[in-house]
Amino acid sequence: MKKLLSILLAVLMAAVPVSLSSCGSNTAIESPRATYTRDLAGTTVNVFNWGEYISDGSEGSLNVNKAFEALTGIHVNYSFYDSNESMYGKLKSGAVSYDVIIPSDYMIERLIKEDMLQPLDYAKLTNYDLIDPQYKNLFFDPDNTYSVPYNVGLVGLIYNTTMVEGTPDSWAIMWDEKYKDNILTFDNPRDAFGIAQFLIGVDVNSENKADWDAAAEKLKEQNKVLQGRVMDQVFAKMEGGNAAIAPYYAGDYHVMKSNNPDLAFVYPKEGTNIFVDSACVPKNAVNYEAALMYINFLMEPEVALANAEYICYASPNTAVANNPDYEFYGDEILYPTEESRPVCEYFHDIDPEIRSYYEKLWESVILDS
Questions:
Q1: What pLDDT does 8 receive?
Q2: Which of 9, 73, 189, 297 could form a disulfide with 362 if both were Cys (CB 3.0 to 4.6 A apart)?
Q3: What is the mean pLDDT of the chain?
Q4: Is there a contact between 305 and 127 (Cβ–Cβ < 8 Å)?
Q5: Among 48, 42, 34, which residue's Cα sits nearest to residue 77?
Q6: Partners of 184 in the beta sheet?
Q7: CA 126 → CA 39, 40, 41, distances in Å?
Q8: Average pLDDT for residues 315-333, to the nearest whole number?
């Protein structure tokens, strides 16, 4: 049906030549707040982002990359990753250069320490005043030198109400033998360790090897009840009713819920991870000026709103969060109040020796499966 509608629309567009910017097209924004030139038309900006993490034009949403191309004449070469660690590995290899990347806080901290990012020219980021002050000067970029917040989120527990008894309130349910072979967990070490650390009450940023040992043992205990470790595969699993329990990012819950109304969400009482994903420019970027223009475009109110409604994450952009017409305006999962806000901890970059230690522990957890 979608394909048929697309064909009909294409025929109609061909028969009626009208301006994209004047017909409500999803490949243009109506009134940019900033000024954009076409001085770099014909060049390419290479963007590396998370999967399912930008409004792409589906179901009438704004196609952000196409809108940027239409406005600037700059081609967007867009690719994606499914974890901070896989992004880091690709960037570190030097095999490919990217102009814009959107890592999470602790990974940005690591990239800065390793001199893998370059400072941003904020004079050219004229929409930066729209970023909520609470997301500026954070631990990973205290002087706002290298990053522009893109999305904010928390990790929570998604569960199928037809498969799970009652309302869970603890990460402990992910070890419950009652749900054996119906439990999913993260397929990346930092998030998976984080859940075990919150559950057993140790610091998620601990530099004590014994704390990581304890968390690894807890994860090994979990192996016997797991159906599997997933990242983006969690969507199909939970939406299709093929698993009962999965930890994942709060914004993605809304996407899953729209496709499976049996799903529900809680923030476990032991605490959870809060994160800020931000746009950065790698040290080896080829098209720095286009990168700045692209990052500024992401902060456009119309663009930020389209992304927030498509991705379903909390927006750090005040033009979105304060907009009463925004689909998730006041949503307590994305924007918890002081009373409903769970205990939250940011992941920090870990001392290289400890990082190497927990990565080896992670390998032992996997091998123990």
A1: 34
A2: 189
A3: 92
A4: no
A5: 48
A6: 228
A7: 18, 18, 20
A8: 96
3-class DSSP string for the chain:
CHHHHHHHHHHHHHHCCCCHHHCCCCCCCCCCCCCCCCCCCCCEEEEEEECCCCCECHHHCCEHHHHHHHHHCCEEEEEEECCHHHHHHHHHHCCCCCCEECCEHHHHHHHHHCCCECCCCHHHCCCHHHECHHHCCCCCCCCCCCCEEEEEEEEEEEEECCCCCCCCCCHHHHHCHHHCCCEEEECCHHHHHHHHHHHHCCCCCCCCHHHHHHHHHHHHHHHHHEEEEECCCHHHHHHCCCCCEEEEEHHHHHHHHHHCCCEEEECCCCCEEEEEEEEECECCCCCHHHHHHHHHHHCCHHHHHHHHHHHCCECCEHHHHCCCCCCCCCCCCCCCCCCCCCCEECCCCCCHHHHHHHHHHHHHHHHCC
Contact 328, 308 (CB under 8 A): yes
CATH number of 153-274+335-367: 3.40.190.10
Look-up: residue for tokens 């700059």?
74
CATH for the stretch 33-151+277-321: 3.40.190.10
**Amino acid of residue 118:** Q
Quote the CA–CA distance of 341 and 335 in Å, as a whole number: 8
pLDDT for 25: 54
258-274 tens-digit pLDDT: 999 999 999 999 999 99
Which one-letter amino acid corresponds to residue 164?
V
- Spatial neighbors of 147 by CB under 8 A, at least 6 apart, are 108, 117, 120, 140, 141, 278, 279, 280
User: Given this chain, do its domains 33-151+277-321 and 153-274+335-367 carry the same CATH topology?
Assistant: yes
Residue 364 and residue 344: Cα distance in Å, rounded? 28
Any idea which residue has 């720095």 for tokens? 288
pTM: 0.85
Length of the chain: 369
pLDDT digits (tens, 9 = 90+) for 181-192: 999 999 999 999
The domain spans of the chain are 33-151+277-321, 153-274+335-367
Give φ, ψ of 319 to 5 degrees: -65, -20
Tokens 């000024």 locate to 35
The torsion region of residue 60 among left (phi > 0), alpha (psi -120 to 50) and beta comes to left
